[in-house]
Design a protein that fits this description.
The complex is a heterotrimer of chains A (240), B (297) and C (351). By secondary structure, chain A is α/β, with parallel strands linked by helices. Chain A has helices at 40-48, 70-75, 93-100, 107-120, 122-126, 137-149, 167-182, 194-200, 218-224, 227-232; strands at residues 2-11, 14-24, 29-33, 55-60, 63-64, 78-81, 155-159, 186-191, 203-208, 211-217. In chain A, helix 3 (93-100) runs parallel beside helix 6. Classes of the chains: A alpha/beta (240), B mainly alpha (297), C mainly alpha (351).
């Protein structure tokens, strides 16, 4: 469904991605893991049209994404929930969701999607008329994800959804992601929380300073990848 | 003397200034762009009124509507031709561009029409008054207040109950995120500029209604008022612009009464000192918004 | 050894100064009075543009009040340099206390610059605390307010009427010498610790703050220095043109100075120089055309504003197609345009 091939990207003089290749198939839950600065968010940014890679290709269901503006990519069915939630603080919960459904044109559909959203996120129904800025961190994260789902995306991309949340809320979020996965939503997840991520994903890529160090199923990564090394900065000793 | 006449005059002035400030802030809120050419949109409205009243038999209502339309078109035109190409570059480039367009439009009017003031034939109603509670109130003032109320209502309806309006407000919060939800950047920005132009057109009718003539430089004084009103009110939101407009009107009217004859011409300078003082204590402006602009120090 | 190294680091200002001298010599030798006039004004304008570069190029913030300070320098300088009789002749309502003040030319200019700087110091303090957009707007308001004050303070400025009778003191060589010194001074500021810190904090104010750079103070210093240069330029200009009014220091002048800097390239001192040269040449050519059309009476109602229309279109085109100006971010070097010395870009990516 989604294919990145040899993506290179940079911020001014700083190289962020040095040749990334990733695939995501329909219905999969795939994670990009790694420490800060590894290039995970940059990768999502390239897919979502926020950044433009200077080399490499990105295709989604056969269509090239490189060079297209974010609004067009959204209309193709890709929904990005950026790091930091980015909900609209001065808009109410309902208005946030309404805008999430922007790419969907049918009136009846909006009502239906809203009802389904409230089933998944009951707390949002409670707060429906409140401005987004008054919600707590966890609620905002839920709103951000709910908003992204309003467009019935074919690919949902989440950038560090557990960032800044208390352990209980982190549980909730990961449960939610699993739930969505079971309902058939294709998800590309960026996370620093390796353990929790590996518990729920089909496959994962381990990134380090703009490259993919290892990839595979959770099992494969746990046994063969030097996860500790990447996070601790110490390389595994060969033969260990 | 603070009497009914003074109050109505001030309300009328405040209404005018509020609409003026609104037109400026709506573009600023989304693009962070201070549109220096905004004053010239008023000038364009004025010249359209001049040309139509001098050379065509159209009734004043039509002339007014066409002036508003001209303001909107001029605004959209400048966005398309001058701001869109520079938008991706930097804010400073956009600011200088807007200043260049301001100069361009002013001098184009100079070149094409004349450096001298041109008289605009005003509708009868602008010259008549009505008696309220023993005071003679010019119809023009009442119309200004009414127009302001109507405009604010319509704008609020647009912003709260239409998807486009919601998108505009969202763009003011977070432009990038709005695009990520599939809202086309150009649509949002053009709409903002269109509204800005419409406001300028409306303001031009009442501004010229006070002086009954138009010159190439007529755009500078309202631009300054709009600027100051926005800065006082807080650049980030529409409520602030409206409040700023009224506050400006109140202060400057009070200064006009309080200051002795020798100092009255320096009203604007005093106004400015007051504004500086306000900014010293509240650099974000009077109206707190949830996402205040970052301060430097 | 030390001298050679010193000279090498001063390559840019020396190159620019050499260029200025060559132009001046050529003008002197040509002996055409119109050309001498144009070139003299150009060098005075150069001072003002350099002053703006000092602030804008290093802080990245637009300052619309700049020519207002030029005006303050001009009015102050002439109030001091004119004889009491001359002053009263042009401004019968002059404050009596101002009449007897009489100083030689250079001290008058200097005090004019100092007054401008002092005012900038006061106004600058609240200004620096504002966010970028509010700062730009407020600087614009400052320009307007200075204009309002000049227009209405009759006992000092003669109000909207022309103030005439100023001594002609700014000859070609006077303006050249001042321009040269200004080039060196502005360049030294750019490469000084204040200049470097200012540009660093432009990029990332948090990183800069964390290593102890106080951006507000740096900006304020640049603002005051910039006003000083503008004030000095104003004094010089007043003694060239010998009669002026408040309208000489308002929107049209602001536009021209801004055009000169932006077209040349606001990030570099060379940009200010090149821009002033290019714009002056263009303006004079366009003005000649405009005058010719007016003489021939091709348009009955007069042909005015042509120069400004063309210039503003050029400015917009530069901003669209080459926003860093003619010089890009580079300074001139001898030998020709060696790559990349410096400065941070005017081009910030949006989004």
């Amino acid at each position: 469904m989604l294919e990145l091939h040899d993506i290179h990207a940079r911020y001014g003089a700083i190289t962020a991605l040095r040749g990334i290749s990733i695939t995501v198939s329909q219905g999969e839950l795939v994670a990009l893991l790694g420490v800060n600065g590894a290039g995970k968010s940059t990768t999502l940014g390239c897919i979502g049209g926020v950044m433009r890679p200077w080399q490499g290709s990105i295709t989604f269901e056969g269509n090239s994404l490189v060079g297209k503006p974010p609004e067009q990519i959204a209309r193709m069915g890709i929904s990005l929930v950026p790091e930091g939630r980015d909900i609209f603080p001065s808009l109410t919960v309902e208005e946030n969701l309404r805008l999430g459904a922007y790419v969907r044109s049918e009136k009846g559909e909006y009502r239906r999607n809203l009802e389904e959203t409230f089933e998944l996120f009951p707390v949002l129904k409670e707060r429906i008329e409140q401005p987004g800025g008054t919600l707590s961190g966890g609620e905002q994260q839920q709103l951000a994800i709910a908003r992204a789902l309003m467009s019935r995306p074919r690919l949902l991309m989440l950038d560090e959804p557990s960032l800044g949340l208390s352990p209980a809320l982190v549980d909730q979020i990961f449960e939610l992601i699993t739930n969505l996965h079971q309902r058939g939503v294709t998800i590309l997840l960026v996370e620093q929380n390796v353990e929790r991520s590996l518990e729920i994903v089909d496959r994962a890529y381990l990134m380090n300073t703009g490259l993919i160090e290892s990839q595979g199923t959770s099992e494969q990564l746990r046994t063969h990848a030097d996860i500790e090394g990447i996070y601790m900065g110490v390389k595994k000793q060969p033969g260990k | 003397m603070i009497n009914l006449e003074f109050i109505i005059n001030t309300l009328s002035l405040g209404s005018l200034y509020a609409m003026l400030a609104l037109g400026l802030v709506i573009v600023y809120g989304i693009l962070n762009l201070v549109n220096f050419a905004y004053g010239e949109l008023i000038m364009v409205g004025g010249y359209v009124m001049f040309l139509l009243t001098a050379f065509s038999p159209l009734p004043w209502l039509v002339v007014g509507i066409l002036a508003i339309g001209a303001g909107m078109l001029a605004s959209l035109f400048t966005e398309l031709v001058a701001f869109r190409p520079v938008r991706e570059k930097s804010l400073t480039a956009m600011l200088v561009t807007s200043f260049a367009i301001s100069t361009l439009l002013q001098n184009a009017a100079l070149l094409i029409i004349s450096p001298r003031a041109r008289a605009v034939t005003l509708p009868e109603i602008f010259q008549t008054s009505v008696m309220i509670a023993g005071t003679s109130v010019p119809w023009r003032n009442i119309l200004t207040i009414v127009t302001c109320v109507v405009t604010l209502t319509l704008l609020t309806l647009l912003l709260r109950h239409t998807v486009l309006g919601i998108a505009l407000r969202a763009a003011a919060d977070n432009f990038k995120m709005t695009r990520l939800l599939g809202v086309p950047a150009n649509t949002v920005i053009s709409t903002a500029f269109a509204i800005s132009g419409i406001m300028a057109g409306i303001v031009s009718i009442f501004w010229i209604g006070r002086s009954s003539s138009v010159t190439p430089t007529i755009g500078a004084p309202p631009l300054l008022v709009a600027f100051v009103a926005c800065v006082i009110g807080g650049m980030r939101n529409l409520t602030g612009a409206v409040v700023g407009g009224f506050v400006y009107a109140i202060i400057i009217s009070l200064l006009g009464v309080i200051l002795p004859p020798g100092l009255v011409e320096f009203r604007e300078a005093f106004m400015f000192v007051i504004v500086i003082i306000i900014l010293l204590f509240r650099p974000e402006g009077l109206i707190r918004s949830k996402t205040s602009v970052e301060r430097v120090g | 050894m030390k001298l050679a190294a010193r000279l090498k680091s001063l390559n840019t200002p020396l190159t620019l100064v050499a260029g200025i001298l060559i132009i001046a010599l050529f003008t002197q030798l040509a002996g055409i009075s119109l050309l001498t006039r144009i070139v003299t004004v150009m060098f005075v304008s150069l001072m003002v543009v350099l002053g703006l570069q000092l602030y804008m190029g290093n802080s990245g913030i637009l300052n619309f009040a700049h020519v207002g300070f030029m005006g303050i320098g001009a009015y102050t300088a002439v109030l001091l340099s004119m004889t009491p009789q001359a002053k009263l002749l042009t401004n019968s309502g002059l404050y009596p206390v101002l009449a007897p003040l009489h100083l030689p030319f250079l001290p008058s200019i200097l005090i004019g610059a100092l007054v401008a700087a002092a005012l900038a110091a006061i106004i600058g303090y609240p200004l620096m605390r504002l966010s970028d957009a509010a700062a730009v707007i407020t600087s614009f308001a400052v320009l307007v307010i200075i204009n309002v004050v000049m227009l209405h303070w009759d006992p000092v400025t003669n109000g909207p009427r022309t103030l005439f009778g100023v001594d002609y003191r700014t000859t070609l060589w006077m303006s050249v010498i001042f321009a040269m010194f200004t080039i060196v001074a502005v360049y030294l500021f750019k490469e000084s610790r204040v200049g470097l810190r200012l540009r660093a904090s432009r990029d990332d104010r948090y990183a800069a703050a964390s290593i102890g750079i106080n951006m507000m103070v740096m900006r304020w210093l640049a603002f005051v220095a910039s006003a000083f240069v503008a004030g000095m330029g104003g004094g010089l200009w007043a003694h060239f043109i010998t009669s002026f009014s408040p309208y000489s220091f308002y929107l049209s002048e602001t536009f021209v100075v801004l055009a000169m800097l932006v077209i040349g390239g606001p990030s570099s001192v060379s940009g200010a120089v090149v821009g002033t040269l290019v714009v002056t040449a263009t303006r004079e050519a366009l003005r000649a055309i405009e005058n010719q059309i007016n003489i021939l009476q091709i348009f009955p109602q007069g042909f005015f504003g042509f120069t400004e229309v063309v210039l503003s279109i050029v400015l917009i085109l530069i901003l669209v197609y080459r926003p860093t100006g003619i010089m890009g971010n580079h300074e001139l070097h001898w030998p020709r345009l060696r790559r990349k010395t410096d400065v941070v870009e005017l081009n910030e990516p949006k989004a």
